[in-house]
Write a structure and sequence with these properties.
Length: 294
């Protein structure tokens, strides 16, 4: 059970106590990924969340977000973050507690360069997924040069691009591959798959027991990224945030499959399931344990 991870809020709590998160995400055709990551961070308890998004896409995102803020950045009508956006994005993100970066960013080289510069120049906590991870393909040496702390959340294909391994090679010994990576680079890792394993930067490994094929849908990873960032913004360490988020993410899918099937879950269905999952964890009724591998 993860009851010990759950932190009860005090009566005098206010939004400023639970993190101010920036979500740097979105490109033409991929606004949904940015929106889901943003909503997931809010739903799991972050106090304030702002979606930083190319200006030409801001109206679409704004129509889907009520509780979150948006920060449009001039994109010259291109639908992705351009090189000229860097200074503005950096200035906005510089005082945020957590920077969630990657969902739906696209792979325009200007955008990829922005990701790498933010990572190596800002002393912040980063949660990096999807195209944020792809930005380091061919630039692996930069992974060792964060100013702050970071957790990367790749699936085996993305992890393979970071390490030069094929997905089959990664999956052949996920524990060894992940531990070697974090010890070499000094960052945290969530290696997604069956099972998902969370690695601390010191090499601790936590094998997640929740989840099922219902999570094999586009957008599920974006929601997980938001969960991790939202928890990290509340003061959980990156290891704690990742372990708890991965567990909750899979637990919601498990309870869905028990009630419905493992076919019909949409990524967006994971977000409203947070409350029931945290309720079970708080009360110790979830009955599932995380295995720590030494």
């Amino acid at each position: 059970m993860l009851r010990g991870f759950y932190r009860k809020r005090q009566p005098d709590s206010h939004k400023g106590m639970f993190g101010n998160c920036a979500v740097i995400a979105g490109s033409a055709g991929k606004v949904g990924a940015a929106v889901m990551a943003t909503l997931a961070a809010l739903k799991i308890g972050a106090g304030l969340v702002t979606l930083v998004i190319p200006a030409s896409l801001a109206k679409i995102a704004g129509a889907k977000l009520t509780e979150a803020m948006t920060y449009p950045v001039d994109d010259q009508g291109k639908g992705f973050f351009t090189a000229s956006a860097y200074d503005e994005v950096r200035a906005f993100a510089a005082d945020k507690d957590v920077i969630i970066m990657g969902p739906g960013l696209g792979r325009a080289e200007e955008t990829m360069a922005m990701v790498r510069r933010l990572y190596t120049e800002l002393d912040r906590t980063f949660v990096i997924d999807a195209d944020g991870i792809n930005a380091f393909d061919g630039h692996g040496r930069l992974l060792k040069e964060p100013k702050g702390k970071a957790v990367f959340t790749p699936h085996p294909g993305e992890f393979g691009r970071l390490t030069g391994m094929g997905p089959k090679e990664v999956n052949a010994d996920r524990l060894c591959a992940g531990r070697g990576f974090v010890l070499d680079h000094g960052i945290n890792l969530v290696l997604k798959g069956a099972p998902t394993i969370t690695f601390s930067s010191e090499g601790e490994a936590f094998v997640n027991p929740t989840g099922n094929p219902a999570l094999s849908k586009g957008g599920a990873g974006d929601v997980l990224t938001g969960f991790i960032g939202g928890l990290a913004g509340q003061g959980y360490s990156l290891t704690e945030a990742a372990v708890l988020a991965v567990y909750v993410h899979g637990y919601i899918a498990d309870t869905w499959a028990e009630k419905y099937t493992d076919m019909d879950l949409l990524a967006g269905d994971l977000i409203p399931g947070v409350g029931a999952a945290l309720h079970d964890i708080r009360d110790g009724t979830d009955r599932i344990y995380v295995e720590q591998s030494l």
